[in-house]
Amino acid sequence: MTDSTLRLPAEWEPQAAVLIAWPHAGTDWAERLAAVESTYVALAAAVTRFQSLIIVVADAQLHAHASAKLLDSGIDLARIRFVELPYDDTWLRDSGPITLRDAGRFQLADFRFTGWGGKFGAEHDDALIAGLVHAGVFGSAEHKRLDWALEGGGIESDGNGTILTTWRCLAQRHPRQSREEMSAILRDSLHAGRVLWLDHGYLEGDDTDAHIDTLARFAPGDRIVYQACQDAGDAHHDELQRMGEELAALRTADGRPYTLHPLPWARPIVDEGRRLAASYANYLIINDAVLVPAYDDAADDEAARIIGEAHPGRQVVQVPCRPLIWQNGSLHCITMQLPAGLI
Questions:
Q1: Known SUPFAM superfamilies for this protein (predicted)?
Q2: Residue 65 and residue 57: Cα distance in Å, rounded?
């Protein structure tokens, strides 16, 4: 463990706000903008019930448009701050800040964002954190640029020095580096004590090369919530079964097995012949609540029940996320939580 007192908080620790970017016709949402905006409105309504929301908008016109939609839905704009900045897309889990903290200071870890290994243009997204800093969103927090590709959706933190990630993703981003080299970089940059790796698990239609937040999530009390597949005839069954076995073999820092919460499997959702990545593991924890993706599927309620069980004392709020998976992500992917005291 590094001697710094900085650490990467767990998502269930107190938050100041959630950060999102509003979709618009200049993003990949253009073809189905109305449908995806309905999800963003539902998300904003859910978040602002419990805490503040920061919305990045591309310009004054989009600011006015988003404000009107939120007002029409009865959302309290006093709990929302708008920031005008350019962005390529709206997946702020991956382009937003990874915030480390200690008792009295914050560090914004600004890793290089490459559009998921060069799949998409990312010039504006890679500059987003610097733009937010320049806009004064984060007060006196230290802004630390790191010339190494990493997305927020690619890591999970238990808040106590353990990072969980996937080999498939980071080996794609850094094909010339060994697992040991990448573990050392993660430990150093995230001030962690250890890194746990999964070698199995993926979702068809996922552009991220198996981000951990689509597969397995830390929860309080040494729990792990993960996406299982109970359908032996599904192409994902064997891989997710092996991932479940890997998770069962993991141990806490003091040598105990994790308590596992397998999630149900949604029926295949196919759009114009393309399988979409519908993961219930892609949920968002906020103050006093957990927001759970819903896909208009029979498994939605059972997934919400299990996630609520793994996060006791929090209200469970389902957010309609079927429009999001058309672009291969879900609820957690479009959000980034900001720790209490940061703003």
A1: Pentein
A2: 10
Q: What is the dihedral of CA 182, 188, 191, 196, to 10 degrees?
A: 20
The Cβ of residue 136 has, within 10 Å, a number of other Cβ atoms equal to 9
* Both structure tokens of 154: 């690619």
Q: Is 284 helix (H, G, I), strand (E, B) or coil?
A: strand
How far is residue 335's CA from residue 283's CA, in Å, rounded to a whole number?
A: 10
Task: List, in sequence order, every residue forming a beta bridge with 248; answer none if it has no partner.
Answer: none
Q: Phi and psi for 114 in degrees, rounded to 5?
A: -110, 15
- How far is the C-alpha of 133 from the C-alpha of 274, rounded, in Å? 39
Yes or no: say if 21 and 36 are a contact pair by the CB < 8 Å rule.
Answer: no
Structure-token pair, residue 192: 């962690």
Domain boundaries, the chain: 15-339
Contact between residue 48 and residue 15 where contact means Cβ atoms under 8 Å apart: no
Cα distance between residue 244 and residue 240, in whole Å: 6
Position 104 scores a pLDDT of 85
Query: pTM score, two decimals?
Result: 0.97
pLDDT at 1: 41
State the amino acid at position 77 in one-letter form: L
pLDDT number for residue 261 = 98
300, 274 in Cβ contact below 8 A?
no
Beta strand spans in the chain (E): 15-21, 52-57, 80-84, 98-101, 106-112, 142-149, 156-157, 162-166, 194-198, 216-219, 223-227, 259-263, 270-271, 274-275, 284-286, 289-294, 315-320, 336-339
Stretches where the chain sits below pLDDT 50 are: 1-3
Q: What CATH class is the domain 15-339?
A: alpha beta
Residues in the chain: 343
CA distance 133 to 92: 15
Asked whether the beta carbons of 163 and 186 are under 8 A apart, the reply is yes
Closest CA to 51 of 27, 81, 22, 6: 81
126 closest CA partner among 155, 100, 92, 153: 92
Instruction: Scan for tokens 């149900």, then name that residue.
Output: 264
Rounded (10°) angle between helices 60-72 and 33-48: 70
Predicted confidence at residue 39, as pLDDT, reads: 98
Structure tokens at 153: 């959706």
